């Protein structure tokens, strides 16, 4: 097995039902991990060997394993030991816990029944589950008590601990579009820049786009454009940290003009380059290649 394949990190997410495993697996997915829910422990080694021996770029793996697996769950400890021996991959176990009262309240709020509560009382199931998981909890490298954590705080804790070094969790997608072709359905923020002077009416600029220096210079020279840039720069400097703090992993900012050729492209390029200094930024121009009328 080559050294590149040994770089694969495996995190097993387990713990008490209602302690936040769904939020956890979503957080790992946002970090770029290959995620799988309710994987039978006996298939863990086979699955990981398949991943690390594939021809594709190795990916980190996060797998949720809990008592939904029934009898198969009890083989988890043995599966972890065998995995280390067979693949030289040492899985990290993340155990999510919470106080009994908190778990009972969460079950009542969701109106779900505990998988081990044969009597129908959540607390009975929680106590039985805690007893069954006591050995596994002792083997865990990471134990997070989520009793006083919000979903956002749990995401932040996981991102801080498991985010690959140098990775950008928060991605800003800046795009341009033409209103005549429809508003992008995946945009979080949409800015209409059709009030700015339109290069379409300048004959020598009509068949060019905002990617051309002549067009961008024309759009950017106006006082209204400079005012807009100033106000949006101030807005983004305020809003982006708030989105990050709330646990959002990406933001789509869309600039629209009539055809998506000139003004929107110019503004998308401007702010895409401006925001790239702090965050991972992707610039796309949805309609710039559509033939002009």
TrEMBL record:
Q: Which Pfam families match?
A: PapZ_C (PF22740), RapZ-like_N (PF03668)
Please state every residue range assigned to the domain named RapZ-like N-terminal: 9-163
Residues binding GTP are 66-69
Q: Where is the RapZ C-terminal domain?
A: 171-288
What SUPFAM superfamilies would the database entry show? P-loop containing nucleoside triphosphate hydrolases
Q: Which UniProt keywords apply?
A: ATP-binding, GTP-binding, Nucleotide-binding
Residues binding ATP: 15-22
**What GO MF terms are annotated?**
ATP binding; GTP binding
Return the InterPro entries for the record. P-loop_NTPase, RapZ-like, RapZ-like_N, RapZ_C
User: Which HAMAP family does UniProt cross-reference here?
Assistant: RapZ_like (MF_00636)
Q: Which protein is depicted?
A: RNase adapter RapZ
Q: What is the lineage of its organism?
A: Bacteria, Bacillati, Bacillota, Bacilli, Bacillales
């Amino acid at each position: 097995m080559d050294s590149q394949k040994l770089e694969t990190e495996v995190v097993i997410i387990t713990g008490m039902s209602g302690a936040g495993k769904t939020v956890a697996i979503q957080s790992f997915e946002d970090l770029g991990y290959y995620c799988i829910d309710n994987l039978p422990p006996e298939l863990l080694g086979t699955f990981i060997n398949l991943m690390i021996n594939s021809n594709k770029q190795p990916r980190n793996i996060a797998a949720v394993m809990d008592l939904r697996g029934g009898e198969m769950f009890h083989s988890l400890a043995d599966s972890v030991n065998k995995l280390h021996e067979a693949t030289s991959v040492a899985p990290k176990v993340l155990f999510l816990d919470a106080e009994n009262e908190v778990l009972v309240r969460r079950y009542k709020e969701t109106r779900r029944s505990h998988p081990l509560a044969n009597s129908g009382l959540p607390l009975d199931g929680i106590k039985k589950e805690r007893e069954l998981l006591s050995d596994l909890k002792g083997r865990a490298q990471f134990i997070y008590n989520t009793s006083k954590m919000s979903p956002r705080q749990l995401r932040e804790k996981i991102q801080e601990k498991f985010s690959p070094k140098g990775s950008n969790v928060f991605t800003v997608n800046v795009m341009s579009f033409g209103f005549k072709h429809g508003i992008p359905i995946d945009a979080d923020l949409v800015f209409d820049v059709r009030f700015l002077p339109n290069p379409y009416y300048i004959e020598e600029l009509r068949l060019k786009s905002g990617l051309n220096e002549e067009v961008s210079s024309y759009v950017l020279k106006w006082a209204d454009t400079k005012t807009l840039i100033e106000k949006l720069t101030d807005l983004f400097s305020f809003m982006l940290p708030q989105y990050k703090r709330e646990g959002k992993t990406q933001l789509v900012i869309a600039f629209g003009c009539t055809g998506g050729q000139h003004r929107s492209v110019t503004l998308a390029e401007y702010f895409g380059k401006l925001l790239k200094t702090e965050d991972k930024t992707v610039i796309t121009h949805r309609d710039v290649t559509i033939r002009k009328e």
